[in-house]
Amino acid sequence: MSEKQTFTVLAEHDYTWYPVEKGYSGRTLYVNLSDNTIESRPVTEQMKEIFVGGRGFGLWRLWNGVTENTRWDDPENEIVISSGPLGGTTTFPGSGKSLVVSISPLTDSVMDSNVGGYFGPLLKFAGWDAIEIQGKAAEDVIVYIDGNAGKVQILQAGEIGVDTHLVGQALTQTFAESEAERRDISVVSAGTGAEHTRMGCLNFSFYDVRRKTPRYKQAGRGGIGTVFRDKGLRALVVKRAGVRGDSNGPADRERVSRVGIKVHREMHDLDHLQCRMRQVGTMHLIEIMNDYDLLPTLNYQYGAHEDAHQIDSKVFFERFTQGIPDGCWYGCTMACSKGIDDYVLKTGPYKGEAVCVDGPEYETAAGCGSNLGIFDPEALIEFNFYCDTYGIDTISFGTGTAFVMECYEAGILDLEKTGGLELHFGNTDAAFELLHQMGRGEGFGAIAGQGILRMKAIFAERFGGDLGFMNDIGMESKGLEFSEYVTKESLAMQGGYGLTLKGPQHDEAWLIFMDQVNNQIPTFEDKAEALHYFPMWRTWFGLNGLCKVIWNDVEPESNALTSEPAKVPEHVENYVEFFAGVTGREDVCSGDDLVFMSERVYNFQRVFNLRLGRGRRADDQIPYRSMGPVTEKEYESRQERYDKQLAEILELDPTTMTTAAKVAALRAHREEQYVKLTDAVYKRRGWTADGVPTPEKLTELGIDFPDVLGVVNKFL
């Protein structure tokens, strides 16, 4: 779209801009799309003290905006976006994150999603610590925040496209007065796929000055893009020029710069010797996961494949263009964003167009590649583009489609039931047609777009599928599809997926190497401690607008010699310095203080889930495939491993047993192990045996508000 657009103004709010002080602007922006209300709401000292920012602000605003009866598609459901006090810092890498919070269409509970791009930092520098959106528009609208003019507008969307690559380009061009000003604009959007599925993602733009086009990062998990489109939002747009090294108003700028320079140097000097994030991003994980039997293959049945080299980092390094580090926020020397220029689409409504494709990252390559039995890099690039522009989470799409393919091969589905789609593993054409149907909300794609939890019920009710078998192989928990790691041999990682707040997403705890490879946490108590510390530690990044990869994807050269290398203690000290330097809070003196901040918010979110009817022990269960082999074929693929475990751990003689008996014996043992792990984790977290935070724990954390206690007392 080459011409600037004009829009009808439905509502307008003028405000006075003030500079950010100690990481906060001091107010949040409230927009109600039902009646076009726009207002400023204060950020209180209690909010900063207890909820910190980012995900914490989102949870607090959402808690006060909904009731226990609110569901995802009710007008009172909210989408809250906030960066956090450290977000937007240009002198410390990885500081460009935003956190999005809403009630999820997949899980019917609280969902938070972490995303890069410019929106959160520019929103704060435009004068707002968060934006809180409620209500539903009668027709599609755009919310435009002009931080230079001090103006917020609700605009009729008009004729601009819906899919992200169309709306992002059009609005960036429309609201920029010049080419240079395009970098001062960020657009949040979701496409047609978000309208027609429950797994819609949000795309946050950042303007690439070398490519001269907007690029996108995804708030992928839990269907918040679906909420976005249900509310009639075509886009959110923020504009703010003049970002500088001190725009965050740090209490001690020199302190922040000093610690930032140290970390910048590590990114530059060490990354090429470690994870190569600056060269290939997260794609380096393909070969590592394959080598350690952790790469999901054919719906997590297996952990490796002989063709995995066809989609590994070497293949994509040759396709990623520009050839220099590429970041999604100013000043991030990790610069792990990757893109492919002038890719000519081969399928779908945009067939023949040359587009810029962001990624793919590991999760997309594993989920849409090996997990589907597809080892074609060109296909992965195309899956990546269409999922992004349609606004469909690549993880839920990949894991959900893998489930469909196994159901097809198991005879639960056939050509008649899928509307002619031959959805066996490795059928690239059928997988693309399924994706495009999801984008249109048509055919079997309309069913697949509901997610695995609802597909299981549909397949059982309509097609006579064996619900027990589908529960075993359907890789979802709480309604959220698993991200892309095989956890059969890591009990701790099973807990890292199941004993979570929002569902099986690796951003709470990634413990496979500590547990399975290095055997650093052998006992239940060790695992429980890890499943306390790491989810709380990782939560802290979401409170502050930070990217976790800076913490552990590049480590100090001496890290292996420390007493707790998995925690990267030098980096923990860096974050203490960073937080105190920005906020001026000298009461924060150690990593334990940072973890305590997170523990408050983490427990509050658990209570929030309880309020919505979720968040107890029954909700923390995981499918058996994440614990062990479901089928005899699966068992036999790793028979030597499993037979050895039966002999050494259970003192059974596998030579006298049928494969079916061996599968059953191993299953009973592994399910018992998960029960014991759950007990240990709940005890360490200060929760009841049913997974409910105790009043004593809430009092210890200072979140014993009457309405919070009122929720937990219902379950005691």
Tally of DSSP β-strands: 17
Mean pLDDT across all residues, rounded? 97
Per DSSP, the total helix count is 28
The amount of helix comes to 40-55%
Question: Mind telling me the CATH superfamily name of the domain at 22-239?
Answer: Aldehyde ferredoxin oxidoreductase, N-terminal domain
CATH architecture of the domain at 22-239: 4-Layer Sandwich
Rg, rounded, reads 24 Å
Distance between the ends: 58 Å
Strand order of the largest sheet: 1-9-8-13-10-11-12
Classify the fold: give the CATH topology of the domain at 22-239: Aldehyde Ferredoxin Oxidoreductase,  A, domain 1
Major sheet summary line: 7 strands, mixed
pLDDT < 50 stretches: none
User: Which structural class best describes the helix and strand composition?
Assistant: alpha+beta
- How much β-strand is present in the residues? 5-15%
CATH class of the domain at 22-239: Alpha Beta
Cα shape: globular
Structure notes:
With 716 residues, this protein is an alpha+beta fold. Among the domains are: 22-239, Aldehyde Ferredoxin Oxidoreductase,  A, domain 1; 293-320 and 359-481, Aldehyde Ferredoxin Oxidoreductase Protein, subunit A, domain 2 (Orthogonal Bundle). Helix content is 41%, strand content 13%. It contains 28 helices and 17 strands. A 7-stranded mixed beta sheet has the order 1-9-8-13-10-11-12. Strands 3-2-7-4-5-6 form a 6-stranded mixed beta sheet, with helices on both faces. Strands 14-15 form a two-stranded antiparallel sheet. Helix 2 runs parallel beside helix 23 (591-611) and helix 7 (253-270) packs antiparallel against helix 22 (569-583). The longest helix has 27 residues, at 659-685. It is globular. The model has no long low-confidence stretch (mean pLDDT 97).
